[in-house]
Amino acid sequence: MNSPQGQPPPFELLLPALQEFCQVVAVLRGPDGCPWDREQTLKSLRPFLLEETYEVLDALDRGDLAELEDELGDLFFQVVFLCQIAAESRAFTVDNAIEKIIKKLVRRHPHVFDPDNGTATETTVSTSSEVRGQWEELKAQERAEKDSRKGLLDGVPTKLPSLLRAFEIGSRVAAVGFDWKTDADVVDKIEEEISELRQAINVDSSEQREEEMGDLLFSIANLSRKLGVEPEAALRCANRKFCNRFGKLEERFRVEGRHLQETTLEQMEAAWQAVKTET
């Protein structure tokens, strides 16, 4: 499947590889296949799908393309594995899933494709924000056709990490015009939520503290959206940076023959500041 450097392989070369891969998965699930693979169900694969997704995200965050290639293969295996199990119960096949996403992409990109034949058409939107608005409008129409009782936010997965779900909720309502006008307006809202959280801290009510903390985090997720920063990625980066710096702090005291438990907060803070200047 060789192709000119920097160019994807011709589409016709992808088909044999996909067929071979699906066949491998089918064999693993067959009577003479792998006992572990044969025992899996749609539900049992959930944690593996989640794990592989986060490993892909980690490779993306680190910019490791070799690792990304490997992790995307693992993630793709989970997708095909789920399709294979569904096919065995005659629910749907991998072909059905592919056909469905093709139709969805064509339908939701009328500025690129003619929905009737899938060919390129005249562009009617010119900015990503206009595309996002059009996308949400089309999704709303699809939901209305399926169930008129469903609202704009009914399709936001409840199993998403809460910070990412808050980001998606904000994105969907913003696409129909329900949004702060400026970044500064969101900052003002965050300051308001901090003030309310301060008041809740002085009240002996864990429920009120939780509510105000949630409001603050929701506002922060929306500020991330306004700034064009995906909050989960930003927080993963911050976590990685903190862990790296704290490891260096531990190493400093280890070299000195001291344990963290033997140091004061002031000493740790001084070491922390020194580490920050190095990283």
Structure description:
By secondary structure, this protein is mainly alpha-helical. It folds into 4 domains: about 15-105, MazG-like (Helix Hairpins, Orthogonal Bundle), CATH 1.10.287; about 110-150, no CATH class; about 160-230, MazG-like (Helix Hairpins, Orthogonal Bundle); about 235-279. It is built from 11 helices and no strands. The protein has helices at about 10-30, 35-40, 45-60, 65-90, 95-105, 130-145, 160-175, 185-200, 205-225, 230-255, 265-279. Helix 8 runs antiparallel to helix 9 (about 205-225) and helix 10 (about 230-255) packs across helix 11 (about 265-279). The longest helix has 25 residues, at about 230-255. The model has no long low-confidence stretch (mean pLDDT about 90).
Please outline what is shown here.
The chain is an all-alpha fold and 279 residues long.
Features:
279 residues; mainly alpha; Helix Hairpins; 4 domains
Number of strands: 0
Q: What distance lies between the first and last C-alpha atoms, to the nearest angstrom?
A: 42 Å
Radius of gyration: 25 Å
**What's the mean pLDDT score?**
88
Q: Please provide the ordered H/E string of secondary-structure elements.
A: HHHHHHHHHHH
Low-confidence stretches: none
CATH C-level of the largest domain: Mainly Alpha
Strand content: under 5%
CATH superfamily of the largest domain: MazG-like
Structural class computed from helices and strand pairing? mainly alpha
CATH topology title of the largest domain: Helix Hairpins
Major pleated sheet: none
User: What's the number of domains?
Assistant: 4
Q: Can you name the CATH architecture of the largest domain?
A: Orthogonal Bundle
**Relative helix content:** 55-70%
Number of helices: 11
